[in-house]
Amino acid sequence: MVLTVFIKLSKQSKAPLRNGLSAISTSELKAEAKKSMHGMTLTTRTIGSLVEKGILTPDTTLDFHAKLDQSEFFFGDFDHIMDLLELNRIFPLLDKKLVE
Q: How far is the C-alpha of 88 from the C-alpha of 60, rounded, in Å?
């Protein structure tokens, strides 16, 4: 669900892609996640595995897991994330294996 929210915000963003990476502010990501994730909140636990696997990258190299608000932006490869979402749509049982 986090990736779906990231893609939705990337499509709405007027900021250009930088080297294929789109940047979404943490505040926008939290606000949209609150609406789109049906009661789930965006925390380091919900986004942590995506950061660890390199799918999403915070703008800071500080200890991300200490606090989500340390990062002002998250970067992600738009095409790579779209591919992951499409594969997950086609093969929903493989979602755990796709990020490995």
A: 29
pLDDT at position 50 = 86
Map out the domains of the chain as residue ranges: 2-98
In the numeric block, the tokens 């965006």 are attached to 42
Phi and psi angles of residue 24, each rounded to the nearest 5 degrees, phi first:
-125, 130
Chain-centroid distance of CA 42 in Å reads 10
With a cut of 70, which residues of the chain have pLDDT below it? 16, 61-69, 92-100
Beta strands in the chain (DSSP E): 21-25, 56-58, 73-77
What are 81's two structure tokens? 């994330």
- Domain 2-98: CATH architecture, name and number where available: Orthogonal Bundle (1.10)
